[in-house]
Amino acid sequence: MPLFVQNIGVIKFKVHGPISIPYKENEKRSKHISVADAKEFWLEIDKSLAKERGCYVFCLKYRGKVIPYYIGKACKSFSQEVFTSHKLTKFNEALHASPSSKPVIYFVVHPKQKGKTNESAIDELETYLIQSAIMINPEIKNIHKTVGRKWTISNVIDQVPGRTREDEKSFSKSMGLSGPRALKPS
Asked: Closest by alpha carbon to 142, among 77, 52, 22, 55?
């Protein structure tokens, strides 16, 4: 029996961030990200990132803690899809609700490859990230893909109060659902 299974054909996305997003503050100290701030953002970061595809996670940073507020996908390019008007509205709603926070963004980049970008992998990743973000912040601004799974396995998928039994630990480990490489199903 093999000790580990190699994931042949698995698409390996790479994370970039958190990257600060420029914003303006008015006299009442209310923060706002404008179209001009978005243009400034693309001028300040690595130019190649603007052309990439994948998912992005808009977050607010407060006292060292980074909380996700909106997850999106970009199948064209990040520069074409991240700061559209309706997304700026969502970002600003989150920013106004948490005036002491600073806006940051993560990019989860689809690897360069020959041929067409795997849009279904990007879509699947977006769903996974939304489901993960809801566990951290139930107030995320996403509308779609927010309904989670309708099942669980006690102390394997979700922790319940009390001690985890040895059979639960063993099953979790054998299925790769525990430890640093665990990928919890959504």
From this structure: 55
CA atoms within 13 A on the CB side of 88: 15
Q: What does the chain come to in residues? A: 186
Cα(48)–Cα(36) distance, integer angstroms: 20
Q: Sort residue 145 into left (φ over 0), alpha (ψ -120 to 50) or beta.
A: left
Report the alpha-carbon distance of residue 130 to residue 137 in Å, rounded.
10
Count other C-beta atoms under 10 Å from residue 79's C-beta. Answer: 18
Per-residue pLDDT 10s for the chain (186 aa) are 344 445 567 888 999 999 999 999 887 778 999 999 999 999 999 889 999 999 999 999 999 999 999 999 999 999 999 999 999 999 999 999 888 999 999 999 999 888 888 899 999 999 989 988 888 888 898 878 877 666 677 777 666 677 888 888 888 877 777 654 455 444
